[in-house]
Amino acid sequence: MPATIPPLPHGGSPTLLVLLGPTAVGKTALSLALAERLGAPIVSADSRQMFRGMEIGTAAPTREELARAPHHFVGTLAPDRYYSAARYEQDALRLLSALFRTHPVVILTGGSMLYLDAVCRGIDNIPTVDDEVRTLLRRRLEEEGLDALLAELRLLDPQYYARCDLRNTRRVVHALEVCYTGGRPYSAYCTGQPAARPWRTVKVGLQRSRDDLFARINSRAERMVAGGLIDEARRLSPYRHCNALNTVGYKEAYRYLDGEWTLREALDKIARNTRVYAKKQMTWFRRDADVQWLDAESATAEDVASLLNEGLGIRN
């Protein structure tokens, strides 16, 4: 039986239940239990599970899991499609507007920090980058290297340069794309002001001890390789230079396929780089005081439903 959501004190707005946490913490299992408990659809906020043919490397929901509840934004894009958090915000808001007509609760779940923030807080009004600019900067990155682009970013936008992760190639290139397209520094568009949303938001985070989470990550890396990750990466080789494949799992698989690493080395690197990513996720999520944290080992759908019924969420 779907859980009863009481009338909301601020006018009956629907509820967006955000289930977040680091990779491998257990979001998929709990989101499915919640979907069945609440009669709610699931909207994915995973920037890589959106792409088709990448099911193993992204730990996408299986066919059986997809059959248990309506899912959105899973396997909807070709690997060579360009996609961004800003475009996700537009698509997700359009979808949520439709879903809330028939569902009092919608579950948003995933670990892509920018995608979650895009829905909950909104993306700044950054100009859409045209294909010519994107192609130009990709070519410059290949020909001149990251250091040349960093020098240009420091000149064009010293404010963003001072706080940017200078080893994150995608963010450096995107900042320059915006500078070129808009004719203004990228930081000039980053106001950080949250957008108003016509729903209340309840954020629930799943956490585990460091040792437990890392053990799960290591085990999942083993299962991915045993389950066919290398063959999946081989099939996706024509797209290996696309942004969709610039992610943990595939990058290491290609080092193996290119003969640079042994399979054991590639597997160990996948596990290590996933652990590093998980630590970054937790650092990001911990900054949000609105997240209510639950122990992933013991959290149940009933626990989360209780949080909804107690009205402990926020409204953006």
Give a quick set of tags describing it.
Rossmann fold; six-stranded parallel sheet; disordered C terminus; alpha/beta; 13 helices; Histone, subunit A; 2 domains; single chain; 316 residues; disordered N terminus
Tell me what the structure shows.
- With 316 residues, this protein is α/β, with parallel strands linked by helices.
- The protein folds into two domains: 15-124 and 200-310, P-loop containing nucleotide triphosphate hydrolases (Rossmann fold, 3-Layer(aba) Sandwich), CATH 3.40.50.300; 131-188, Histone, subunit A.
- Helix content is 48%, strand content 9%.
- It has 13 helices and six strands.
- The chain has helices at 27-38, 63-68, 85-99, 113-120, 131-144, 146-156, 158-163, 169-182, 210-226, 229-235, 250-257, 263-286, 301-310, and strands at residues 15-20, 42-44, 71-72, 105-110, 200-207, 291-295.
- The protein has a six-stranded parallel beta sheet with strand order 3-2-4-1-5-6, sandwiched between helices.
- Helix 10 crosses helix 11.
- The chain starts with 14 loop residues before the first strand and ends in a 6-residue tail after the last helix.
